[in-house]
Amino acid sequence: MVTLTDTASTTTTTTRDAQSTTLSRRIYATGLRCRVCGEGYPLDPVHVCERCFGPLGVVYDDAALARDVTRETIAAGPATLWRYRALLPIATEHPVDLGAGWTPLLHARRLGALLGLERLYIKNDCVNPTYSFKDRVVAVAVNRAIELGMDTIACASTGNLAPAVAAAAAVAGLRCYVFVPEGLEPAKLINAAVYGPTAVVQVKGNYDAVNRLCAELADTYNWGFVNVNLRPYYAEGSKTLGFEACEQLGWQAPDHIVAPIASGALMVKIARGIEQLADVGLISRPRTRYSGAQAAGCAPVANAFAAHTEDVRPVRPDTIARSLAIGNPADGPFAVRLARQSGGIIGAATDPEIVEGIGLLARTEGVFAETAGGVTIAVLKQLAAQGLFRSDETVVAYITGNGLKTPDAVAGSLPAPTQISASVEDFEETVLGTGACD
Ligand SMILES: *Cc1c(COP(=O)(O)O)cnc(C)c1O
Ligand SMILES: [Zn+2]
């Protein structure tokens, strides 16, 4: 990390102001920019363009990054997403850190063989601190909130964001309000409450109602709503899923990526991350294709893709994949465009296919995913059956949440335990079916 601070280390003043200037020099992010009209903004807690209401994204000094950041400086960093700090909009060298990121990329030989893929990889993000990829986006948003001087963080959650925010708030010592919709899996409510947030607030209505309320509250209170007013920073965390896949493949971009879609930010930012690695000279210019996976019971992005339009029509979600149940996805149009322009597809999986996908992944690769993972595996299977992949392509499927969060989704599809008395005879007769017959 030494190379990141060379300009700053020449400054010797000790006043507060000078210190904050010193810090700000260590950040390679230079501002925000509207992703629709290109209007520029400072690195403030803002997320919507005043000119066209488009969403804002973070821009970087790519020339400085190309000069200062190498494969070696990254590899010398921690075994967490903070190894990519220079490529994130965070200045501090000592971020609040739960150890998110740098999760295993598994060569999925058995599942690959079933699907006709020699080089299928599973990015296993089930093993993050609160058991979903949301720990990545929260790591960036919460540290940005601290840098912006905020003392309270909040979020609108479909289930996995709430525990990630509550855990980060606990470690950072921040006040914390997490907002969730009705009908969430009990495991997810417990997973949020256990970290002792100021309040877990259950809002009557679905996620889209929760999100509307949070947008109003973010206008009233100077709080960091990680996925509302801090959304440009939050979304940057998903780039690390793209960075890691490339680094773990020996600094090579995958040929094809399959990712689940709720708001669409995850998939779009994986692509942004991989492009950024090429922008700063860490990999050669990739030609990765991007495919997205939705639940059939909440498929506004897949519907738009099928209808050859970027006009994503909101839907009312009805699916067991609650973590993906966003009826009005903010990044939907960008996800449609990414899939179309890169040569990918956006597919949808029914509830029975989702359950089957969870079981298939567990039985072949030993990874127990929550419903979003079932969606991804089910769509991966559809795409393989449609002949979308060449057999020697490197395909990475993103498994973004842990199955222990949604055990009820599969409970009914699994055999009950075989009951026996504590005797060898009963074991042999009932389990092995070889009992003595006299
Ligand atoms: C939130 C979430 C996603 C999708 O994220 P978006 O960026 O909103 O598309 C995928 N998988 C899991 C498990 C999630 O919790
Ligand atoms: Zn704009």
Task: Please identify the structural class as seen in this structure.
Answer: alpha/beta
Helix content: 25-40%
Bound molecules: pyridoxal-5'-phosphate, zinc ion
In the predicted model, the low-confidence regions spanning at least 5 consecutive residues are: 1-25
CA-based gyration radius:
23 Å
Shape: globular
Q: Total helix count?
A: 17
Overall mean pLDDT stands at: 92
How would you describe the overall organization of this protein?
Helix 5 packs across helix 6 and helix 6 runs parallel beside helix 7. The protein is of the alpha/beta class and 438 residues long. It has 17 helices and 13 strands. It is 39% helix and 14% strand. Zinc ion binds next to loops.
Any chance you could write out the topology, listing elements then pairs?
Elements: H1 16-25, E1 29-34, E2 40-41, E3 56-60, H2 62-68, H3 71-75, E4 105-107, H4 109-115, E5 119-124, H5 134-147, E6 152-156, H6 161-172, E7 175-181, H7 186-193, E8 199-203, H8 207-220, E9 224-225, H9 231-236, H10 239-248, E10 256-260, H11 265-279, E11 289-295, H12 300-306, H13 332-342, E12 346-349, H14 351-365, H15 371-385, E13 394-399, H16 407-411, H17 424-432
Parallel strand pairs: 5-13, 6-7, 6-9, 7-8, 10-11, 10-13, 11-12
Antiparallel strand pairs: 1-2, 1-3, 4-5
Helix pairs in contact: 5-6, 6-7, 10-11, 11-13, 12-13, 14-15
This protein binds pyridoxal-5'-phosphate and zinc ion.
Residues 34, 36-37, 39, 49, 51-52, 54 line the site of zinc ion.
Task: Report a brief summary of the structure.
With 438 residues, the protein is α/β, with parallel strands linked by helices.
